[in-house]
Amino acid sequence: MLHLLQKPLEAAKPNRRTFLKMSAGTVGGLMIAMHLPRAAEAATGDSGLVQPFVHIRPDNTVIVLSKHLDKGQGTATGLTTLVADELDASWDQVSAEFAPSNPQVYANTLFGVQGTGGSTAMANSFMQYRQAGAVAKAMIVAAAAQEWGVPTGEVTVSNGVVSHSSGKSATLGELAGLAAQQDVPAEPQLKTPDQWVYIGKTFPRIDVKNKTIGAPNTYTMDFQRDDLLVAVVARSPRFGGKLKSFNASEAEKVPGVVKVLQIPNGVAVVAESTWPAIKARDLLEIEWDDGDAETRSSDAMMAELKELTAKPALKVREDGDVDAALEASASVIEADFEFPFLAHGAMEPLDAALLYDGETAELWLGSQIQTIDHNVAATILEVPFEKVKVNTMWAGGSFGRRAQADSHPVAEVAFLAKAMLAAGMDPAPVKIIWTREDDMAGGYYRPMSAHKIKVGFDGDNNVTAFKYNIAAKSIIKGTPFEAMLMKDGVDHNMTEGAHDTTYAFPLMNMDQAFQETKVPVLWWRSVGHTHTAYVMETMMDRLAKQAGKDPVTYRLEMIKDDPRKVEVLKLAAEKAGWDQPAPEGRYRGVAVHKSFGSYVAEVAEISLRDDGTVKVEKVVAAVDCGTPINPDNIRAQVEGGIGYGLGAILRNQVTLADGIVEETNFDTYEPIRISDMPEIEVHIVASNEAPTGIGEPGTPPIGPAVANAIAAAKDEWVTNLPLTKAGLV
Amino acid sequence: MSVTLKINGETRTLDADPESPLLWALRDELGMTGTKFGCGIASCGACTVHWDGVPIRSCQTFVGDLEGAEITTIEGVDGKAAQAVQAAWNELDVPQCGYCQSGQIMAATALLSETPKPTDEDIDAAMDGNVCRCATYARIRKAIHLASDKMEA
C-alpha cells in the first residue's frame, strides 16, 4: 500500500499546487481548478441536505461520500460509521458512495492530494467525518426547531428519528430539504466517546451484500455500456524495451476486432468485447528494441545488491563509529538476508475505462490516488482538469498496486483514447483490461533487497553495536514523490521499521544503497516493513539466544520507552500461552512490530510434516491501533494481513531470466490457499488513543514469527526468502 | 457459431466464437458480470459457475462445447445451500475486496449441496482451487460450517 511519510507531507501541504504540478511531471504540468461541488444543489434543498462527505436525501437515505478507495480494507464502512454515529442515523438508512475527485474538498489531509494509502484512512478522517456527521445533525436539528417552533436544545435525534417532547417527530429525510437552508455550523458539537452508538462496536460492512450476489457495476472490470470497447495492450516483455515495429494483419482479421493502434508503450488491440481482443493480441507480430531494457537475471541483480551492502553507503542512521565498536566487541553475529521481488497479485487485475470526446473525458477505475489519476488524464488529453470526471469504482484488491506515482494505467487508456480519435473513430468509452499475465509480469513489484547485519556483544552478551546495511531499488527516487518524501537523498520507505526501532541498542548505524534498474517497483502492503520486520525480529531472537534469554523476556528488556509495544507483546504472549511449553510436535515463534502508527504482536505455532515442510497451525495476534472503530473489521484486516504476508514468505517470488519475468500467473506465483491458512485469533487492546491504520500492520510480524518458530524447531533462521528456497514448503 | 443452452434456467442462444471461454460470453455477450475474471488458466476459481450443479471454471470452458448445457451463475444460484451460504457470508462479513467471492460462493454451494456436513478436510479439498488474495479463508471456513448448520435448522 501507498506509504507516504506523514511528516514530510504535512510540511509540504502549503505547496500542494507545486505537488500537483510535479505529480504530472512525466506528462507535463497542470494547475487545478478551484471548484466546489454541488453548491447550487445545497442552496435549493431539492436534493435534500447536500454537504461535503454526507448527503441526506428526501427519501431518507443517508449517503456517506468516501474520499478513500475501498479495496477491501473496509474504509467505506468505517467512514460511514463515523458519520452515522455523530448524525444519529439508523444503520439501515446509511450507505456509501465514492466521493468525486476534488482535492479542495476530499484531499487526504496527510497527503495534500486525494488518495488512499499508508493505512491513513482512519487517521486522517476520524475527526473530519465525525464533524461532517455533527454538522448535518446540527442542521437537521435547526430545521426541526424552525418547523416546530421550538428551541434547538429541545430537539433530539436518535436512530434516525428527530423528535420533541411535544410528540412531534420526523425522519432525517423529511427534514433534509429544510436543513439545507440552515446555517452551516463552524464548530459542531462532537459526541464524547461514552455517547457513541456505532464507533467501537461491530456493525456489518455496507458492501457485503453486493459482494455476495455478484452485483453489476461494482468493479472497473464489470463496467459496461452498450457502446463500450475493450482493449488489451501488447507491452514490451522486457522492462524499458521499446516498440520497434509491428504487423497487425492477422490480428485485424479476428471477428470483433475494431482497430489495432500504436500507443507510446506498445500496441493496443481494440475490440467489441474482451475475447476477440485477447485472441487477436496473440496474433500480433512485434519487434521490440531492447537497447535500453533491463536484460539481467534477478540472480545477477541480487548479486549486485549483496555487493552494495558490503560497502559503506548513504547514512540513514549514524549513532557513532560502529566499525570500531564491532572491532572492540567480544563476539559478533553476522547475517545476510535476501528478499525477492513480489507481485501484489490483487484478484482484480489492473483495468481502467475512459470516454473522451475531444473536449471532455470521464474515467472509471478503482482510483487510489484520484488527484494524480485525474491530472494525468487531463494532461494527456489536453483538457482542463474540470472537464475530466473521475468515477471511483470499488477495487478488487490493491495491496499497493493501484497507488502509482505515474498513473500508468490511466496514462495508457488516455493515450489510447486519443489515438482512437486521431484514427477517425467516433468517441466511445474504452476499457483496457490487463490479463493476469499482464498484471503479474508488468512490474511495479515490492523491490528485491539485500540486508547485511553485524551485531557486536560484550563479554556478558549485551549488545554493543548494531550495523545494518540495506540495498534495494528506491520506490520513491525518480518519481514525483521524491522532492516530498526523500530528505537529504534518504528514502525512509526502504528502512522504516529498522532505522526507527525502539529497541535499546547502545549504538546503531544504518546505510542504504540504491540499485538502478528498469524494473519498476512500488509500495506493497506494509512497504519497507515487509523486509525490515523480518530482519529485525529474527535478529531479536538470535540476540535473545546469544543472551541465553527467552525471546519475549529479552524483547521486553530491550524495548525502550515504548509502552504500547510492551503491551501488545505481553497480550499476545499471554493469549498464546507463551509461559507454557508448546503442545507436542508444535513450535512457536514471536514477533512484534510497529507500522503506520499501529502495534501488532504475533505468536505463530507451526508443526513440521514428515517431509520436513512447515505447516503454520495457529497465529495469536494482539493489536493496538488506537481507538477501535469497528473491532470485527480490525480482526478481519489482521487475519487477512497475516494470510497475505504468510503466502509471500512461504513461496512467492518474481524472478527474471534475461530480463524476462518467469512467474506470470497463479500457477507459478502460487498464492496462499485455504489449506495453508492457520487458525487465527486477534485480540484488540482497548484504547482511547487516536485511531491509526489497520490495513497493513498485520502483515509485517507474520514472516519473522514463522521464521522464529522454524528456528525453535531447527535452530536455524531462514535468511533467504521465500521458504521454498530452503525446502521448507 | 450459435449454441443453445440454459443459463440460470432460461434458454439462451450464444452467437459467439466457439473458442471463446464461457467466462467472456457470460460477461460480455450476456452482461452477467458477477462471474469474475481472475487468471484465465483455471488457477484461481474466481470464474466458478455450475454445469449441471458441478462447479467448473468458466475461463477454461468453451462456448463450442456447451450445446444443451445447464449453467448456473452467481446471478441465478438459488436453493437451500445457496441461500444458507449467502446468509452465512453476510452474517460473518466474509468478503473484503469481494472480487473472488462469487466464485467462493459457487464453490461452497456446490460443496454443501453434495456434502451437507463437510469436515475441514472436505472444505480444503473443495475450496483449495478458489484463491482469495485478501486471505478471508478463516471466515470462509467458518461460514461454510455456519451455512451447514443453517441448512439443518
UniProtKB/TrEMBL annotation, chain A:
Domain Aldehyde oxidase/xanthine dehydrogenase a/b hammerhead: 213-292
InterPro entries attached to this UniProt entry: Ald_Oxase/Xan_DH_a/b (IPR000674), AldOxase/xan_DH_MoCoBD1 (IPR008274), AldOxase/xan_DH_MoCoBD2 (IPR046867), AldOxase/xan_DH_Mopterin-bd_sf (IPR037165), N-heterocyclic_Hydroxylase (IPR052516), OxRdtase_Mopterin-bd_su_IorB (IPR012368), TAT_signal (IPR006311)
Gene3D superfamilies cross-referenced by the UniProt entry: Aldehyde oxidase/xanthine dehydrogenase, a/b hammerhead (3.90.1170.50), Aldehyde oxidase/xanthine dehydrogenase, molybdopterin binding domain (3.30.365.10)
Top EC group: oxidoreductase
Keyword annotations of the record: Oxidoreductase
Any Pfam family matching the protein: MoCoBD_2
PROSITE patterns reported for this sequence: TAT (PS51318)
One Gene Ontology molecular-function label: isoquinoline 1-oxidoreductase activity
SUPFAM superfamilies the record matches: Molybdenum cofactor-binding domain
Enzyme Commission number: 1.3.99.16
Protein name (record): Isoquinoline 1-oxidoreductase subunit beta
Organism: Roseibium album
Automatic annotation (TrEMBL), chain B:
GO function terms (MF aspect): 2 iron, 2 sulfur cluster binding; isoquinoline 1-oxidoreductase activity; metal ion binding
EC supergroup of this enzyme: oxidoreductase
Entry keywords, A to Z: 2Fe-2S, Iron, Iron-sulfur, Metal-binding, Oxidoreductase
Keyword set includes Iron: yes
Pfam families: Fer2, Fer2_2
Xref: SUPFAM superfamilies: 2Fe-2S ferredoxin-like, CO dehydrogenase ISP C-domain like
Domain of life: Bacteria
Domain 2Fe-2S ferredoxin-type: from-to ranges: 1-77
PANTHER family xrefs: BLR6218 PROTEIN, OXIDOREDUCTASE WITH IRON-SULFUR SUBUNIT
Name this polypeptide is given: Isoquinoline 1-oxidoreductase subunit alpha
Record organism: Roseibium album
Gene of this entry: iorA
